[in-house]
TrEMBL record:
Organism field: Novacetimonas maltaceti
Keyword Hydrolase part of the UniProt annotation: yes
Annotated InterPro entries: Isochorismatase-like_dom, Isochorismatase-like_hydrls, Isochorismatase-like_sf
Pfam family, one: Isochorismatase
Any one GO molecular-function label of the UniProt entry: hydrolase activity
Keyword Hydrolase appears in the UniProt entry: yes
Domain Isochorismatase-like, residue spans: 7-179
EC assignment: 3.5.1.107
Key words of the record: Hydrolase
Protein name as it appears in the record: Maleamate amidohydrolase
Length: 186
């Protein structure tokens, strides 16, 4: 039996779709999170902290319920689903493919983290009011302590990002500055 005292870093949707200006899901502020995420990723890797890459991917040629709300996007194998240069998984870093906003919904994320003795998650990426919030809420529901690093997430709707961070702090976890995120991973 493993104690659940360890921390993991979860990168949510650090894929080309949100950061490549040629992609329709890219928004101007997205790139601002890359330097803080790189700092956190370096700290996690230096300390041997588990790094998980949660990425939205949908199956080609199969209908997806999400298409009722959003245009077809993030099709497996497309350039849009490729990792942003410099943020590719290293050997041993799991990739969790998600078909909804949350990295926990209909994936083995909770099982994998529980089996690794993880109790606390530093969650970063895009978009605060959608995939980050959904992942944080489900992390909390699955018994994890979620921490969101303020500088390492944003949205194309800043007012919703701020409201989401307020809700995360109040109901689900903590919102911390970059310095505290680095300390949590060291």
């Amino acid at each position: 039996m493993t104690s659940r005292s360890r921390t993991a870093l979860v990168l949510v949707d650090v894929i080309n779709s949100f950061f490549d200006p040629e992609e329709p899901n890219c928004y101007p502020a997205a790139g601002q999170v890359l330097a803080p995420i790189a700092t956190l990723l370096a700290a996690a890797r230096a300390s041997g902290t588990l790094v998980v890459h949660a990425v939205e991917r949908h199956r080609p040629d199969l209908h997806d319920f999400e298409w009722g709300k959003l245009p077809v996007h993030h099709i497996e194998g497309s350039d849009a689903c490729g990792f942003v240069a410099g943020f590719e998984p290293l050997p041993g870093e799991p990739v969790v493919a998600k078909r909804r906003y949350s990295a926990f919904f209909a994936t083995d994320m909770a099982l994998m983290l529980h089996e690794q003795g993880i109790g606390r998650l530093v969650i970063v990426g895009v978009k605060t009011n959608c995939c980050i919030r959904a992942t944080v809420q489900d992390a909390f529901a699955n018994g994890f302590e979620p921490i969101v690093v303020r500088e390492a997430t944003n949205s194309n709707r800043p007012h919703l990002a701020e409201a989401s961070l307020e809700d995360i702090e109040r109901y689900f976890g903590r919102v911390v500055p970059l310095e505290d995120g680095v300390m949590a991973l060291s």
